[in-house]
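Observation: inputs received (chain + flavin-adenine dinucleotide).
Thought: call the complex predictor directly.
Action: predict_structure
Action Input:
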Amino acid sequence: MAGSFDEDRFKSFSVSFSGALLRPGDDGYEEARRVHNGLIDKRPALIARCRGTADIVAALAFARETELEISVRGGGHNVGGRAVIDGGGMIDLSLMKAIQVDPQVQMARAEGGVTWGEFNEATAVHGLATTGGFVSTTGIAGLTLGGGIGWLMGKYGLAADNLVSVELVTASGDILRVSEDTHPDLFWALRGAGANFGVAASFEFRLHPLDQVTGGLVAHPIDAAGQVLRFYREFTAAAPDELEVNGALVHAPDGSGMRLAAIAVCHCGSPEQAEADLKPLLEFGSPVMVQVGPMPYPQVNTLFDDAYPRGALNYWKSSFMREPDDSAIDTMVDRFASCPSIMSGLFLEHWHGAAVRVGASDTAVPHREAGSNFLVTSVWTDPAATDENVAWTRQTFAALEPHFAQRRYLNYLDADDVGDAVQAAYGPNFARLAEVKRRYDPDNLFRLNVNVEPARS
Ligand SMILES: Cc1cc2nc3c(=O)[nH]c(=O)nc-3n(C[C@H](O)[C@H](O)[C@H](O)COP(=O)(O)OP(=O)(O)OC[C@H]3O[C@@H](n4cnc5c(N)ncnc54)[C@H](O)[C@@H]3O)c2cc1C
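Observation:
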């Protein structure tokens, strides 16, 4: 494909494009084609690094004229590598970094290349925040369009629940300001299946007053893993909206390979409420490490960044659980004993509070039941260890399968999660999504995502 465009067309496109156009061999091409997951090694024929909405419109017009398949890149964190394409055109928003905060009305508008770390810093200076991811390096775009879970979800809902409007460039090149008032069906679909309907140039979020949180980690010896995960079950059953809890089997961050059973927390209520709510955690068992305390919200969002270095090799699997019962917990402990990489972990993420008080069909995110999402993050650096790590991840996922609900969180689906996994991500909203897709993208131009095919008319 590379170099196969009509050069005259390419020339007139490049005149109208204010960002950078990179083709194989150009300076910066190799870096720009790389995404977070080092396993992804795709070579676009063209990377259109947009500087604004007009560039997105121009890039889409060029793709339509030349019948170039496209992918869209926000933060580039999708483990399945859906942001990048072999042989086609990558519409890359990572240079689009503008953020405007209006503290009077507690809203922020941010462009599609912004990461949560950048967003949080910009809102924190006004004492405001909204739900973003657990780490700071993910893109606001893909994470929000797929739902968006993180430390503040119990109190403020998912990232998508805080969305007020989106500036969207559609498959036909129209620029729409999409909100509940202007395009209710499309706005509904963008909040959970949003990568299917266009390129989101910018996002407007509702913000909430928030300065300090109480957050961090309590780690126990791996011998106590069964008790720690049972404690997670009891602790989360009583957790108020302000308290987000992850239970984890992980390795010490010092590279020693020591296995740990950990509880990570963020409490966004008052210091007095946090002290009372975190008391059972701080009094439980005999931890080897207790690092929990008050900190600015942007800081809690960076605590686990180092565990996910850019370029490391990743393979992930996740599913909601019916309940982390004793048998599921024992299976997790057993499987973790054979984990081949000191960068990998098993997690239980607590969904509760505001995130599950929204109806299953009020947005395109159907997962509105309180409970735990089970996640295996396999991360390693040696390409020779890939088969071993992928096999362990699959075996671990299969071992836990009897405990799963038939529901999967879209943002964690890996490249091989297709068919039933896609159905399990969209659940009862699938048919309505296919109908919205037919109206806004009948030719399925936007298909490098967890794809909803257009309904047949
Ligand atoms: C280390 C790590 C931590 C994570 N933590 C969390 C977490 O805490 N909570 C959570 O919910 N998820 C989390 N995820 C999953 C993450 O939400 C998804 O990978 C998400 O797709 C990332 O968004 P992105 O913009 O960075 O990704 P990209 O790879 O750029 O894009 C992901 C998908 O969205 C599409 N897309 C991107 N930008 C746009 C746009 N502007 N318009 C239209 N479509 C677009 C892409 O085409 C692609 O299909 C994590 C992933 C990693 C690797």
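Thought: report the result.
Final Answer: Residues 35-36, 71-79, 82-83, 93, 112, 133-135, 138-139, 141-143, 145-150, 195, 199-200, 308, 411-412, 448-449 surround flavin-adenine dinucleotide (CB under 6 Å). The chain has a mean pLDDT of 97.
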